[in-house]
């Protein structure tokens, strides 16, 4: 399947596209001076590819945290976690296929390098079963893979440079596609930059950088001066995912914006010099020195003895009693009811799975099901079935659904719910779901993405889509011979009559 990401317009007025699958195999390097539009380019790429591939963003300035709400990225504030915690978070993000933004804002250079290295190391060292395709975008890559030693310690530099080298040199086989952006190629380690096969070169002024950019794009040295004339948002593109020949393009607009906008000129406040002197040169506030409280020896001894006795105390672990068949059935019904109540909320189809799981856990605790809360893996499977209107009993009682589950497993997790929903409509003989219903089950507002999703599932050999003379669509499941009734693709989203009842509030 070829997914073409629209990046903007060429200078000739045509559409400038990027082949996402080719990018995953060949990586990307973006270069341009400060203010050339590198972050805007990365934001455009991330927004356009968010529905198709998992993403991880190493964000040293906190510019990309605004992607969280509209696109479901999980923002991880690095200063709130240890290096070990970030390593585990990177591994779990890959396992559960959650797009993340590692916000390094507020940390000094050395701690930024250490925490970024830990997070990248966790994603890189994930077990082979979880090597899913993933875009790893590193803004200001020269901070994490410097060409020369700086003011940071050698240990931090080696950790960060090793993680970046693994990403660009060995990451492809693990499904990691590096997208790195830098202000100057001369500041970036050569073994990191050399592994990229796609290039987007923006405005630059130094002769050495223009010469390197021209060499990478296969241009003659006398053409290197053209990089001085590029406007903000204009780039020269080359690579198998972009163009086989150097191509000038302008990056299109984005739906989100960074928190820190470009500074604008504004008039100075009207204040007299004497007022300014009184404010600026006023006496500083007194320093507050926090002195540790001194404790007497008897207090310390009593605390130590209490801690020792608590450590020696052995508490027997409670023995869980096995549940009977009736209790298991009742538990499944309560879990299904809680899940239906969550999905009945208007925005449930467009919320990140991590947010849905948190609400699910809270509702289970309110219901007294603390010891029976499913983990994230089981919750994903339950959510896939619930979005198709299926309960746990439906899956257990009908062998046909086992075949459907096996076929759904051939698709990425975010597509399985759509396939199950279509399968249910086909089994019950209901009209084919419209594009709006498919988009909601997929977690998007875009009807175009819903249609592309059906095309992708059909290309995998799982369904066959047909249209009659009136434009109504019928979907047939391959081998199972289940077929939906003809349905209008443009119909408003509806829910079958037996599923329309409101779930009890929790």
From TrEMBL:
Pfam families from the UniProt entry: DUF87
Gene3D superfamilies per UniProt: P-loop containing nucleotide triphosphate hydrolases
All residue ranges annotated as the AAA+ ATPase domain in the record: 24-345
Record-linked SUPFAM superfamilies: P-loop containing nucleoside triphosphate hydrolases
Protein name, as recorded: AAA+ ATPase domain-containing protein
Record organism: Rhodopseudomonas pseudopalustris
Taxonomic path: Bacteria, Pseudomonadati, Pseudomonadota, Alphaproteobacteria, Hyphomicrobiales
